[in-house]
Amino acid sequence: MKALILVGGFGTRLRPLTLSVPKPLVDFGNKPMILHQIEALKEVGVTEVVLAINYQPEVMLNFLKDFESKLGIKITCSQETEPLGTAGPLALARDKLVDGSGDPFFVLNSDVISEYPFAELIEFHRAHGGEATIMVTKVDEPSKYGVVVMEEGTGKVERFVEKPKAFVGNKINAGIYLLNPSVLDRIELKPTSIEKEVFPRIAADEALFAMVLPGFWMDIGQPRDYITGLRLYLDSLRKKAPARLASGAHVLGNVLVHETAVIGEGCLIGPDVAVGPGCVVEAGVRLSRCTVMRGARVKQHSCVSSSIIGWHSTVGKWARVENMTILGEDVHVCDEIYSNGGVVLPHKEIKSSILKPEIVM
Amino acid sequence: MKALILVGGFGTRLRPLTLSFPKPLVDFANKPMILHQIEALKEVGVTEVVLAINYRPEVMINFLKDFEDKLGITITCSQETEPLGTAGPLALARDKLADGSGEPFFVLNSDVISEYPFAELIKFHKGHDGEATIMVTKVDEPSKYGVVVMEEATGRVERFVEKPKIFVGNKINAGIYLLNPSVLDRIELRPTSIEKEVFPQIAADQKLYAMVLPGFWMDVGQPRDYITGLRLYLDSLRKKSAGRLATGAHVVGNVLVHESAKIGEGCLIGPDVAIGPGCVVEDGVRLSRCTVMRGVRIKKHACISNSIIGWHSTVGQWARIENMTILGEDVHVCDEVYSNGGVVLPHKEIKSSILKPEIVM
């Protein structure tokens, strides 16, 4: 089976992290975002993943060669020369997706994290005999999204309603699809929206079905949702593979610590923390609701919450970092500094406190 | 003869421009900053230029291959693995600088623009019996800098005073040096400051001389000084090669327009404007004290002052851009939008006005 992951643009909402690597390679739960999806696809028998990209292909390609070998799955890039929207890339990658086997192929939005219940999705798709299945997820405020209105019993999609003013349903498009090759006949090679142009037509032909995504879902394309997403992801790990989480007197709630990271004495770590490869967390550090990326050093007695510490950065002794502080790559916060929501671009040194949320360039 | 250009670090002060290119490749008056220096060096017979860098060598090296051919000069890189300060890089590049001929070599700070009077510098250097010559420039507020105290008649340097509290002189280090190979014997391969450690030693031996830099001088490493620097540069062009400046009813003061740029009807351009290769300035546009980089389109009736418009950006119809607005690469300001000092990172669209100076990421 094949899969297409819509990687798309510049990742500007995840700056400053995406100033160092393209978004799919930004780490989430201690591994590149896109790897979570690729591994789940491999697990259900996908043999080739096509990445639809339009930015920094060299960086992506280098990274992928690495993972092709390690994972034993073929990874190729399909590069847009002009932005093709959410459906155009499928037409562009047509030859890679249609291999003559008649098997359906997956399409994923790269920002989405979930439990990726692909085996259940395949089963549901085969059972209904329609042309396409989209996964949907329940939200509290559907009026902000595109709502999918479906027949409760069968899951057959009746229509889509963009930002409905009256209540029509609370399921929205989760950005995970399983499509028969025939869907490609409906898509021209031009900028096209899959939600606005393609799916409504398939729904009109009564060939589009929706499956409610079990488990958590999050679009982690911006820092606040990235942090919430980590909490959901670790909750899920707690249920499915609790042995991967850290344990000990210094651990509170769900905490993921890479095996090469070092944690000092007297720390209190958690809840909802990920500490990446090669990190050093010195003695007496408090970490909560944060991500510490590869190679970062958090010095003694500091306190970090609700923040993201970028690759190879340093947080000084007794520093206090909180309230959606995002440190880019190689940022060094000096001892005793306070950061209240500072967003710091790569290769900077923070020598004085940041008292209110601001960008430091 | 040889030359070393100290390119150094991350260019953070010139962000967002340096998010797209390393600082020496950022255009100044329609060509990469470093090309101004390399061309002036070639003109006095320098056959090899060494760039002391510590960041993004691949981008620099690609660019340089291009210029090596076009200019007929050898350009190599000397890459620091740890920051070596302002003197350490000389030790690192020793083998390239000391070629056995006994000739002195130039050392330049990459951020500096001036008239590069290298022929006069060579003459002055050969005229005294010292080991090193530094160029100095007069400033109004010497207390902010390192002041060079010298004997008026001979130019022999007596001492350096860092940020003097009382008046000791008004000449500061201009970042342009001509050094005998013997100076290399004074520098170890470790982080070293040429102003604080090496020059004072040579001055103590009475072998350091200073020459006052004729003409203008500016450190264009940050946007405000970049804009002032362009004014000084164009003033200088007016005196030395006025034929290169634009003329016509639509031109006020000094304006440099690349031959491949297009200017529409009814525009008023200048003073102190540079318009780069491939730019399109539509009808009725007002530009003053600004730089428009390669591939930019300025739409009808827009008004831009005291700003820098980055490569391939667009400024919409009737947009008003002023007060140190810096648009990074590929930024699109919509019609009728106002930007008062907006600093916009690459690949962004500005759909609503920026009323006070802020960073848009």
TrEMBL record, chain A:
Domain Nucleotidyl transferase: 2-233
Pathway where it operates: Nucleotide-sugar biosynthesis; GDP-alpha-D-mannose biosynthesis; GDP-alpha-D-mannose from alpha-D-mannose 1-phosphate (GTP route): step 1/1
EC number: 2.7.7.13
GO biological process, any: GDP-mannose biosynthetic process
InterPro entries for this protein: GMPPB_C, GMPPB_N, Mannose-1P_guanyltransferase, NTP_transferase_dom, Nucleotide-diphossugar_trans
Keywords on record: GTP-binding, Nucleotide-binding, Nucleotidyltransferase, Transferase
Keyword Transcription regulation on entry: no
One MF term in the entry's GO annotations: GTP binding
Domain Mannose-1-phosphate guanyltransferase C-terminal: 252-360
Function description: Catalyzes a reaction of the Smirnoff-Wheeler pathway, the major route to ascorbate biosynthesis in plants.
Family the UniProt entry places it in: Belongs to the transferase hexapeptide repeat family.
Protein name, entry field: mannose-1-phosphate guanylyltransferase
Organism annotation: Miscanthus lutarioriparius
From TrEMBL, chain B:
Alphabetically ordered keywords of this record: GTP-binding, Nucleotide-binding, Nucleotidyltransferase, Transferase
GO biological process: GDP-mannose biosynthetic process
Enzyme Commission number, as recorded: 2.7.7.13
GO molecular function: GTP binding; mannose-1-phosphate guanylyltransferase (GTP) activity
Residues of the Nucleotidyl transferase domain: 2-233
Annotated metabolic or biological route of this protein: Nucleotide-sugar biosynthesis; GDP-alpha-D-mannose biosynthesis; GDP-alpha-D-mannose from alpha-D-mannose 1-phosphate (GTP route): step 1/1
A Pfam family: NTP_transferase
Domain Mannose-1-phosphate guanyltransferase C-terminal: 251-360
UniProt keyword Nucleotidyltransferase, yes or no: yes
Record function comment: Catalyzes a reaction of the Smirnoff-Wheeler pathway, the major route to ascorbate biosynthesis in plants.
Family according to the record: Belongs to the transferase hexapeptide repeat family.
Protein name: mannose-1-phosphate guanylyltransferase
